[in-house]
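Thread amino acids onto this structure.
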């Protein structure tokens, strides 16, 4: 992001903040800084880093158009504090939409419904043990339209349309569907469950089932996934050509568990994907206050036909605002 864009963003935020004080359009400025000091051993090479883990800055808000219709929006950027390049902004979810008794519809850059369906089962999300390292389907696409139904006795259904004009879509329209039950945070319900399916999304078809629940002080989660590559880019005579890919289907699973003792959350996770590898992580969070916690973790990831495991040891801090 160049200086002009940064200045324009800052001016827009200031203007919107002043306007929101006088209109029924509340604007929320929010973000998260997650920074860890890590020892990383990748492919046999070791290094120490002080790195940002999906730190972000955003604004969101809504406006009541009538008693039954509301407009809403989100503009969010990732901020990579560990990047040597000072232009360290990267687009995350950026969309506008309408919601009412019919549910909600949003258009713009957004996470797919399959990605959102995971809830909070990934206990090392955004860290070195994130499930995206072994599972396909963790997609955020630039050209999407998403519809989510109202809740029916705890059930919600959603669909994301990915336009063929998106450069990640191999000139194919794609669809991501999900059926979800319960509360992702497990605060309003003791269980969360979902099933989801990607059709021609970023060159893959993916089926995923997720469940997480609270039992005797534990939070236990599981995920099953089946994925198949359906499109690829091949180079013929110096030109990029999109070809259908008649490949094999692979299956994987994930198990996670956490236990809270006062201000400490102990957590562990294991993940395996056929023909790719497996990963296990252990860690602990220590809550200093509602927005702030200390982080410690260790992740070991093993890939098929690769001699050395990747190892990550990290200590850090996360603050939300």
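Threaded sequence (321 positions):
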């Amino acid at each position: 992001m160049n200086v002009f864009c940064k200045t324009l963003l800052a001016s827009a935020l200031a203007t919107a903040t002043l306007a929101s004080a006088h209109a029924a359009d509340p604007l929320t400025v929010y973000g998260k800084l997650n920074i860890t000091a890590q020892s990383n051993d990748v492919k046999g090479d070791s290094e120490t880093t002080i790195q940002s883990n999906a730190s972000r800055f955003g604004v969101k808000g809504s406006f009541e158009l009538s008693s039954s219709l509301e407009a809403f929006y989100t503009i969010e950027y990732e901020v990579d504090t560990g990047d040597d390049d000072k232009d360290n902004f990267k687009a995350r979810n950026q969309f506008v939409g309408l919601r009412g008794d019919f549910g909600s519809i949003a258009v713009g850059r957004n996470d797919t419904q399959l990605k959102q369906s995971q809830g909070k089962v990934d206990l090392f999300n955004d860290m070195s043990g994130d499930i995206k390292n072994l599972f396909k389907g963790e997609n955020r696409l630039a050209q999407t339209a998403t519809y989510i139904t109202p809740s029916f006795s705890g059930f919600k259904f959603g669909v994301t349309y990915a336009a063929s004009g998106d450069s990640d879509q191999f000139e194919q329209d794609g669809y991501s569907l999900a059926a979800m039950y319960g509360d992702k945070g497990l605060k309003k319900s003791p269980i969360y469950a979902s099933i989801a399916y990607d059709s021609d999304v970023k060159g893959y078809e993916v089926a995923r089932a997720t469940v997480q629940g609270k039992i005797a002080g534990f939070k236990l989660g599981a995920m099953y996934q089946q994925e198949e590559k359906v499109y690829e880019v091949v180079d013929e005579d110096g030109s990029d050509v999109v070809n259908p890919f008649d490949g094999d289907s692979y299956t994987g699973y994930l198990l996670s568990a956490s236990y809270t003792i006062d201000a400490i959350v102990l957590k562990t996770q294991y993940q395996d994907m056929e023909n790719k590898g497996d990963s296990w992580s252990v860690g602990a969070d220590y809550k200093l206050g509602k927005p702030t916690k200390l982080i410690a973790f260790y992740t070991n990831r093993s890939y098929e036909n690769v001699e050395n495991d990747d190892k990550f040891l990290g200590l850090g801090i996360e603050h939300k605002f």
